[in-house]
Amino acid sequence: MSEQSTSPGADKGPDTGAVENTVAPTTDTVRVETAAAETERDTGGGLMSGSFGRNIGLVLALLLICAAGVITAGDRFASIDNSLTILRFAATIGVVSIGMTFVVTGGGFDLSVGAILALASVWSTTFATQNMAEDTHWILMVFAALAVGAGCGLVNGVVIAYGKVVPFITTLAMLAAARGLAEIISERRTQIVRNEGFKDFFSADVAGVPLIVVIFVLVSAGGWVLLNRTTFGRRTLAVGGNPEAARLAGINVNRHTVMLYVLVGLCCGLAALMLIGRTSTGSSTHGDQYELDAIAAVVIGGTLLSGGRGTIVGTVLGVLIFSTLSNVFTLNNQDTSTQAVAKGLIIVVAVLLQQRLARRATTT
Amino acid sequence: MTETPTARSGQPLLEMRGIVKRFPGVLALGGVELEVRAGEVHCLLGQNGAGKSTLIKVLSASYQPDEGEIFWEGQPVSLTTPQAAMDLGISTIYQELDLVPDLSVAENIFLGHEFSTAGFSQRGETTRRARELLARLGHREIPAGRSVGRLSPAAQQIVSMARALSHDTRLLILDEPSAVLDQGEVDNLFRVIRDLTAEGVAIVYISHRLEEIRQIGDRITVLKDGSTVATGLAVADTPTSELIKLMTGRSIEYVFPPRGKAVPRSAEPILEVSGLELPGVFSGVDLSVRAGEIVGLAGLVGAGRSEILETLYGARRPSAGTVRVNGRELRRASVPAAVKAGVGLCPEERKSQGLLLDQAVYRNITISTLGRFARLGFLDSRDERRRAATVTESLDVRPAGVDRLVRLLSGGNQQKVVLSRWLLRECRVLLLDEPTRGVDVGARAEIYAVVRSLADSGVAVVVVSSEVEEVLGLADRVLVVREGRVVHEGPADEIDESRVLDLVMEGKVA
């Protein structure tokens, strides 16, 4: 056998050399099989270009919505101010959706993201509205929000991984409990943040771009690296793709599952801070229906709801599609009900396309 | 049931000729012949992976054959949908019963063809007809109104049969019906089968238990590696030894690599298992494997072989016993601990337990060694690919190319990918569960050679296989497992296949 190490993609060379060097007698069936697998490989390549094509499809959809915006709302849509409005709107839900992408890729599901966000926002702002806020630094608010998010995620993860309760039920329970707790703490009042340090920091601009948009960009980039370039990401794909095989390969599947829920919880805590920064308030109604928006963005982005395949780029595009769409509807004075109908249509069409692609990939 | 004209004319009820079924990379059925007459019990024999399940799925139209013809009462038919098979009168009772646990017995029996008037179900009629069918099967005691989930497995099976009969069944396929039954229930099942055949219903009976086939069967068809090796043998004229030979005998000779020189008995064992017990499955298992030694576990399916491997690997929690690797005791029920200590498992179900089918070859190989390619958690995937390529080249995985999806490889090459994973990890103990199931002959020989060369390099190997010849040919030492206990231990060259089969079947062959 040749001594040169094979670089990826260098496998198109003839297999004959390898066949002649087999340890044991090779039969004709093996050769036939090789040829068969060779033809199949081409469809494998097609699959790769398929996922690339999907992102192109999402970009086209986004451009289409933008075109609709330009036509119907003209300069009111195509302005820097409006673009920043869209991005600011996309940023909080975007950060949550990145976390959701990891959980879903790892074979899980989280309905409690919006409630965790609300609880984190209330807990965090309680620090700033009570008397002690006078002499405490606003960084405490940051820690509080992140700790609440991570803590709720930890509870979700432990119940799911070690208690073997299905994610749907566990996070549904967390949804109810976290929002209820947020209502108790805030006494159902909107808590206004007066801490100047916090407000100055989170409403700041970085080179003309709002800080929360910058955070969204950083989280997306970090998420991409984490999913595609680290052991954590690789294990997430393995655990979501085939948990039994991952377990027998020596991965601590339960511990990894817990980490995934902690990660999405942290994202919710961060999103809570961004939302407080944008609105200067903490409230038990924050993040209402974020779970549905985040799952919708993740799914139309191309992450498999059954786990094992995830795309950060797709999720970001999914988030942008929904927030741009809702911006265009608002500029045209359409109410949120019409938006909801359009959203529903987009989800169904996107998932139908996704399934068709998946079927083509498995049957050939 | 109506009198079947075919029973008298001698024309077979069902005939399958030259059935071929291919799956990507695997030839599941390579020209199977089957002929079933009305009113007979036709037994289908064969080891795991011989193609029995695929054949009955073709017959019940869950799968479409790629080649071959099917005749029903002499007329060519094409079974394109499960409904078409059902319309002819073919019913299948699978090993995993397909009943709805929360519906009642009667509702389950008539599921899909309920009695209704204008959409309202006729509960009275349904119950009455269900009682009739249960009575016909001799099981009046099963309450038609009880939910199926609360019945015993035996009673559930009767409900399945009642459902089959509700379709005016003329050919009933029973896939290992006795697996969930105790002796009394088996006798009952046989009585039901005799009643049915007396009414002209044909039965295709699948079982591993040869003594059952002696009791109930009329004729036998033996499958092996996806082909018919014998068809229409009369049960009464065929000795058990002949059947075992047909099932296990090699059509093509195995190519086993020569054994190296014997590992001295005094050598320190790498793997030591003592008193391992998994309640209800196996108990008191002692096992020690020295460096360079291959130990084989022989036994029937269900004797506990796979469970022994999985338990000592930490994938199941034992109730007693210890596992030591290099003298250090492993933490109980922890796969990561076993892997860390240098143990690797190639599991029985390659696709569902071993591989990430939709991921690239290299990712499947490096999954147990990720830490080695990571700096601060960041993976060097070029290094990963390079190292994976080195291993796959040494095992001659075809087609080469570590970016290929594992799903697209043949069974033998998929098995080599799992082996590559542990080769890359340089494990000290390798556990192989059915390493050549679904693997073609050429690749089998290659896998044997790899296993032997690993042993020669000092790895301790444990092999589980349903094929006695494989265990005897590959292993240095053999342990025979029967019903969760090790009943024999000794050098592989001091025991032959028929002796192993005797040990394995003891108390089973009449």
UniProtKB/TrEMBL annotation, chain A:
It is found in: Cell membrane. It comes from Nocardioides astragali. The keyword Membrane applies. The chain crosses the membrane at residues 56-74, 86-105, 111-129, 138-159, 165-185, 206-227, 258-276, 297-325. Keywords: Cell membrane, Membrane, Transmembrane, Transmembrane helix. CDD domains: TM_PBP1_transp_AraH_like. The keyword Membrane applies. Residues 1-44 are annotated as: Disordered. It comes from the Bacteria. This is ABC transporter permease. It is a multi-pass membrane protein. InterPro entries: ABC_transp_permease.
From TrEMBL, chain B:
InterPro entries: AAA+_ATPase, ABC_carbohydrate_import_ATPase, ABC_transporter-like_ATP-bd, ABC_transporter-like_CS, P-loop_NTPase. Keywords: ATP-binding, Nucleotide-binding, Repeat, Transport. Residues 14-250, 265-508 form the ABC transporter domain. The keyword Transport applies. Coiled coil: none annotated. GO terms for molecular function: ATP binding. Pfam families: ABC_tran. This is Sugar ABC transporter ATP-binding protein. It comes from Nocardioides astragali.
